[in-house]
TrEMBL record:
Residues 1-12, 56-79 have a biased composition (Polar residues). It comes from Lycium chinense (Chinese wolfberry). It catalyses: 9-cis-violaxanthin + O2 = (3S,5R,6S)-5,6-epoxy-3-hydroxy-5,6-dihydro-12'-apo-beta-caroten-12'-al + 2-cis,4-trans-xanthoxin; a 9-cis-epoxycarotenoid + O2 = a 12'-apo-carotenal + 2-cis,4-trans-xanthoxin; 9'-cis-neoxanthin + O2 = (3S,5R,6R)-3,5-dihydroxy-6,7-didehydro-5,6-dihydro-12'-apo-beta-caroten-12'-al + 2-cis,4-trans-xanthoxin. It comes from the Eukaryota. Binds 1 Fe(2+) ion per subunit. GO terms for biological process: abscisic acid biosynthetic process; carotene catabolic process. This is 9-cis-epoxycarotenoid dioxygenase. Its cofactor is Fe(2+). Belongs to the carotenoid oxygenase family. GO terms for molecular function: 9-cis-epoxycarotenoid dioxygenase activity; metal ion binding. It is an enzyme of class 1 (oxidoreductase). The keyword Electron transport does not apply. It is found in: Plastid, Chloroplast. Pfam families: RPE65.
Length: 608
């Protein structure tokens, strides 16, 4: 039986806003036409569309601008970024050879971009689609204290809620996917029943160099790197590196996806780089401390969804490489940050490895049908490929294995889970239970397709004795079935048997109209909707008391945007009753984003 809840609406007034349909993001549905804007301008799909201006880009001079300006749909806001030492060679004056190389390479890039824009971009790489409406970027916002609050903030909500997202600093010059944007962290700090808000870019090596150059020069992994033009952009980038115009030796990642608080550090992550250490200041602001390699122990990239064991305090992680073997590695960190040796996971091809799961004893590693084939770029296609001939499988390995010899594979045909919500052991049946959202078509996020996207919450059982698997949809009533993506279980019970999952209702795709509380034992679903014309993202579950006997004793926190009034807020919902407890009105727009976490006040005081 399903129930629904919704908060009361407020009274702000703003022009009506519409968003691109699911087909515009690369999926079929009731479609509307693409915006008829010039390729080099990005607009929100408003009734009277305003142009979204980015900082004025510089060309060929490689000089550091003092400030950047990013207007939103409101008047332009001038902002100064935190000062950082720019270790790239672009901070030094260029010699004659470098100047000549810069001019030549810029000319080649201009011709390449002009050629690309002569042909329609796929919807999965068209910036007019990917970053329109409330997917569009915002400027940094310094701390605003004493925010208006409706209702009462629960006493246990004491600390800071942080959420990551993609927020391109510069206007895309060609192809751009939503996942390509620079990382920006949004933070709401709670102290004594009061709330503050700030958002800041994570100052990655990539962002620092592009900010110094005044324009984007690093290739965009999804929006640009496809076909022959993608190869050309890679060659341009590495040629700039040869001449010392850019420095890619310290990573090229955007740190825009995941957040984890581990060993007294908040880490911002994307799977194309090392994590970045971000500090939360005493007044609720954010500062990037730098690229974090765990005191020289981490030599490779780390995926954006490491798993923090709530009992041992250890952090478990994966790293994948799309170019050379080993394509996939597993490792862990002790609660004090000491890294284990890498364990190679044997896979035939580089595999899209966005997420995995842990239990009390095991790590569960999906090897699914979305793979990387760089050779496809030579044929003019995308390197992210759905391999129909491959059979999806899950690898089961002891969490403390020193090598991959004990790895056991269990096939799970026609299964692609972008996210896994939890897993646990059931010794009485020799099974591991994995909870995930099975997505079809598997590559629909990356490649344009006509088939409508479905994301079905599923229970996957892996039998350790027989090596067989079963899979079923947890919500059996088709009338209650909805797309469920982005969310979590009670993280104090990660890797253990859990009854509830809290997941975003990803409808109408790609927007999120609310969240669902799903009983994983019975399939019962209860829905909470954010309100008329309101959409949000990942629901974060915050336990009221870690020692509570009730697993669902806590609160859901979620950023919500009102597309009619063009205002953003943070909603706090009682997870047991699904009643709205409090709403924090935010001083600026919060774009739809990715994943977040909560750091309690005690941990904040002990930051490294």
């Amino acid at each position: 039986m399903a129930t629904t809840s919704s908060p009361a609406t407020n009274t702000w007034i703003k022009p009506k806003i519409s968003m691109p349909s699911s087909r515009e993001f690369g999926h079929s549905s009731n479609s509307i036409s693409l915006l008829k804007n010039k390729p080099n301008k990005i607009t929100c799909s408003l009734q009277a569309p305003p142009i979204l201006h980015f900082p004025k880009q510089q060309s060929s001079n490689y000089q550091t601008p003092k400030t950047n300006t990013i207007p939103t749909s409101k008047p332009t806001t001038k902002i100064s970024h935190p000062k950082q030492e720019n270790k790239s060679s672009s901070s030094s004056p260029l010699n004659l050879v470098q100047k000549a190389a810069a001019m030549a390479l810029d000319a080649v890039e201009s011709v390449l971009t002009k050629h690309e824009l002569e042909h329609p971009l796929p919807k999965t790489a068209d910036p007019r689609v990917q970053i329109s409406g409330n997917f569009a970027p915002v400027p940094e916002n310094p701390v605003t204290q004493s925010l208006p609050v409706t209702g009462k903030i629960p006493k246990c909500v004491n600390g800071v809620y942080v959420r990551n997202g993609a927020n391109p600093l510069f206007e895309p010059t060609a192809g751009h996917h939503f996942f390509d944007g620079d990382g920006m962290v949004h933070a709401v700090q709670f102290k004594n029943g009061s709330a503050s808000y700030a958002c800041r870019f994570t100052e990655t090596e990539r962002l620092v160099q592009e900010k110094a150059l005044g324009r984007p020069v690093f290739p965009k992994a999804i929006g640009e790197l496809h076909g022959h033009s993608g190869i050309a952009r890679l060659m341009l980038f590495y040629a700039r590196g040869v001449f010392g115009l850019v420095d890619h030796s310290n990573g090229t990642g955007v740190a825009n996806a995941g957040l984890v608080y581990f060993n007294n550090r908040l880490l911002a992550m994307s799977e194309d780089d090392l994590p970045y250490h971000v500090r939360v200041t005493a007044n609720g602001d954010l500062e990037t401390d730098g690229r974090f390699d765990f005191d020289g122990q981490l030599k490779s990239t780390m995926i954006a969804h490491p798993k923090l064991d709530p009992v041992s305090g250890e952090l478990f992680a994966l790293s994948y490489d799309v170019i050379q073997k080993p394509y996939l590695k597993y490792f862990r960190f002790s609660k004090n940050g000491e890294k284990s040796n890498d364990v190679e996971i044997p896979v035939e091809d580089p595999t899209m490895m966005h997420d995995f799961a842990i239990t009390e004893k095991f790590v569960v590693i999906p090897d699914q049908q979305v793979v990387f084939k760089m050779s496809e770029m030579i044929r003019g296609g995308s390197p992210v490929v759905y391999d129909k001939n491959k059979v999806s499988r899950f690898g089961i390995l002891d969490k403390y294995a020193k090598d991959g010899s004990g790895l056991k594979w269990v096939e799970v045909p026609d299964c692609f889970c972008f996210h896994l919500w939890n897993a646990w052991e059931e010794p009485e049946t020799d099974e591991l239970v994995v909870i995930g959202s099975c997505m079809t078509p598997p590559d629909s996020i990356f490649n344009e397709c006509d088939e409508g996207l479905e994301s079905v919450l599923s229970e996957i059982r892996l039998n350790l004795k027989t090596g067989k698997s079963t899979r079923k949809a947890l919500i059996q009533n088709e009338e209650e079935q909805v797309n469920l993506e982005a969310g979590m279980v009670n993280r104090n019970k990660l890797g253990r048997k859990t009854q509830y999952a809290y997941l975003a209702i990803a409808e109408p795709w790609p927007k999120v109209s609310g969240f669902a509380k799903v009983d994983l034992f019975t399939g019962e679903i209860n829905k909470f909707f954010y309100g008329d014309n309101k959409y949000g993202g990942e629901p974060l579950f915050l336990p009221r008391d870690p020692n509570s006997k009730d697993e669902d004793d806590g609160y859901i926190l979620a950023f919500v945007h009102d597309e009619k009034e063009w205002k953003s807020e943070l909603q706090i919902v009682n997870a047991m009753t699904l009643k709205l407890e409090a709403t924090v009105k935010l001083p600026s727009r919060v774009p739809y984003g990715f994943h977040g976490t909560f750091i309690n006040a005690k941990d904040l005081a002990n930051q490294a």
